[in-house]
Amino acid sequence: MASKQPENSLLGPEADSQRTLYPYVTGTSVVALKYKDGILMAADMGGSYGSTLRYKSVERMKPIGKHSLLGASGEISDFQEILHYLDELILYDNMWDDGNSLGPKEVHNYLTRVMYNRRNKFNPLWNSLVLGGVKNGQKYLGTVSMIGVNFEDNHVATGFGNHLARPILRQEWHENLSFEDGVRLLEKCMRVLLYRDRSAINKLQIAKITEEGMTISQPYSLKTYWEFSAFANPAQGAVGSW
Amino acid sequence: MDLNMDLNAPHSMGTTIIGVTYNGGVVLGADSRTSTGMYVANRASDKITQLTDNVYVCRSGSAADSQLVSDYVRYFLHQHTIQLGQPATVKVAANLIRLLSYSNKNMLETGLIVGGWDKYEGGKIYGIPLGGTLIEQPFAIGGSGSSYLYGFFDQAWKEGMTKDEAEQLVVKAVSLAIARDGASGGVVRTVVINSEGVTRNFYPGDKLQLWHEELEPQNSLLDILNSPSPEPMNI
C-alpha cells in the first residue's frame, strides 16, 4: 500500500524517495497585525481532516524563545516537527550563554531557509507560517509559505485570511493601534472567516507579544449575527431563490 | 470497485477504534473485523495491542503497517524500560509511535490511538492519525467507523465518568458504528487500564443491544412459524 497516485500521474514511484506529500490534518487561517506595543496574532483551534472538523483544541500559535511567536496553518504534524527544529535552535542559542538571544527576524530567516530548502528537494513542510515578535523595541512581523515565499509587513495572514482578512486590514489598520482596537480588528477578521471559511471553527485564541513577553488568551467563541430579514425570508422576492 | 481515490481526500480505514479517559484511568475499545476488499479475512481479530504492561494501542488502517509500527515501538519501549528502571510513561509510548508515523508518512497508512496509565499523569489518551500528528485528547475515535460517532460523542461524552460509565459508553459506541459501517463488525473488545492493572473484556456480537431496523436473532424461521400465534389486536 505504498503508492496512492492516479493512473495518469507523472510523479513516479513514491515509496523509494521522499517526494511531494499531501496534508492530512490541517489548520486554517492565521491573522496577525502590528500594534502600538508589539504584535497581535489570532488563529482558531481547529484541526480538519479533509472536510471533517476532527480536532477542536489544537493550539496553532506557540512562543519561540523570548522574543517570538509562531503561528501556523497547514499540516499539523509538520508544524509539530518545525517546533522541534526551533526547540533545538533556541537550545543551541542558549548554550552560547553570551547574553544574546535570537530575535524574530533571525527566527524568520531560519524558517525561510528550512522551508525553501525542503521545497527544493520536493519534500515540503506543508505549512504557511506567521512569525511575529519584538526585540529591543523593534516590532517584526513576517510570513513564510510552504514554497519558501517570505516577506514582512504590518499585517499578514495565511490561507483564506489573505482573501478575506487582508482587505479589511488594508482599510482599517493604522500605525499605533491600541491593544483594544487591535483585538477588535482581529476579531472582525476572524468573524468574517468564521462566516465564509468552511474549515473555520468557532473557538479561537488571540496571542500578544511585546517587549515584556508573550501571552496567549484562553480559548473563546465569537458571537455571530443571523437576524437579517433577508435571511429569515430568502424566498420572499421569488420563490425558489436563494 | 474503484481503486483510484482522490489524492486530496483522507483515506477511510476499515475498523472502529475508541479510547476514553475516566476518573482513574482509560478504556480502549475496538471492533474485530479485518477485511481484504469485500471479504472478511478475520472476524475475531484483536486490534488492541499491548506495548507495555501499562500502555496499549488501538490499531486501524493497514493491518500490516499498524502491526509493524506496534512491534517496533514495543521493542523500543522494552529497551527504554530497562534503561529507565521503571515503567515507561504513556507520553513516551505515544511519541515513539508518532516518530515512526511521521518519518514514514509517505509509506504508512495507519491511524493509532495510544492509551494507558502511569504514576505521573494517570490515565491518558493520545491520537495519532494519518500524517503523524500527535494530539492528546480526553477521548479519541478512529477508523472508518468513527465517521458515524462524531455526533454521538459530541452528545454523550462527559468529563469525570466512572469506570463502568466509560466502558458502557465505549461498547455502545463501537456497537453503533458496527451497525452502519461495513468495514467494522464482529465482537467488541475493550481494555481497561488503571492503577490496579489491566482488564480485557469481550462482548460478542449477538449480545449487543439492537439498533434501528435490527431484529432479534432467531435459530430458524421454523421457530417463528411454530411459535404460539401473536395476540389479537385491541381495538
TrEMBL record, chain A:
It is found in: Cytoplasm; Nucleus. Keywords: Cytoplasm, Nucleus, Proteasome. One of its GO terms (biological process) is proteolysis involved in protein catabolic process. InterPro entries: Ntn_hydrolases_N, Proteasome_alpha, Proteasome_beta4, Proteasome_bsu_CS, Proteasome_sua/b, Proteasome_suB-type. Pfam families: Proteasome. Its main location: cytoplasm. GO terms for cellular component: cytoplasm; nucleus; proteasome core complex, beta-subunit complex. SUPFAM superfamilies: N-terminal nucleophile aminohydrolases (Ntn hydrolases). It comes from the Eukaryota. Component of the 20S core complex of the 26S proteasome. The 26S proteasome is composed of a core protease (CP), known as the 20S proteasome, capped at one or both ends by the 19S regulatory particle (RP/PA700). The 20S proteasome core is composed of 28 subunits that are arranged in four stacked rings, resulting in a barrel-shaped structure. The two end rings are each formed by seven alpha subunits, and the two central rings are each formed by seven beta subunits. The catalytic chamber with the active sites is on the inside of the barrel. Belongs to the peptidase T1B family. Non-catalytic component of the proteasome. This is Proteasome subunit beta.
From TrEMBL, chain B:
The lineage of its organism: Eukaryota, Viridiplantae, Streptophyta, Embryophyta, Tracheophyta. Keywords: Cytoplasm, Hydrolase, Nucleus, Protease, Proteasome, Threonine protease, Zymogen. GO terms for molecular function: threonine-type endopeptidase activity. It catalyses: Cleavage of peptide bonds with very broad specificity. Component of the 20S core complex of the 26S proteasome. The 26S proteasome is composed of a core protease (CP), known as the 20S proteasome, capped at one or both ends by the 19S regulatory particle (RP/PA700). The 20S proteasome core is composed of 28 subunits that are arranged in four stacked rings, resulting in a barrel-shaped structure. The two end rings are each formed by seven alpha subunits, and the two central rings are each formed by seven beta subunits. The catalytic chamber with the active sites is on the inside of the barrel. Component of the proteasome complex. Belongs to the peptidase T1B family. It comes from Hibiscus trionum (Flower of an hour). One of its GO terms (biological process) is proteolysis involved in protein catabolic process. The active site is at T15 (nucleophile). GO terms for cellular component: cytoplasm; nucleus; proteasome core complex, beta-subunit complex. It is found in: Cytoplasm; Nucleus. The proteasome is a multicatalytic proteinase complex which is characterized by its ability to cleave peptides with Arg, Phe, Tyr, Leu, and Glu adjacent to the leaving group at neutral or slightly basic pH. The proteasome has an ATP-dependent proteolytic activity. The keyword Hydrolase applies. This is Proteasome subunit beta. Its main location: cytoplasm.
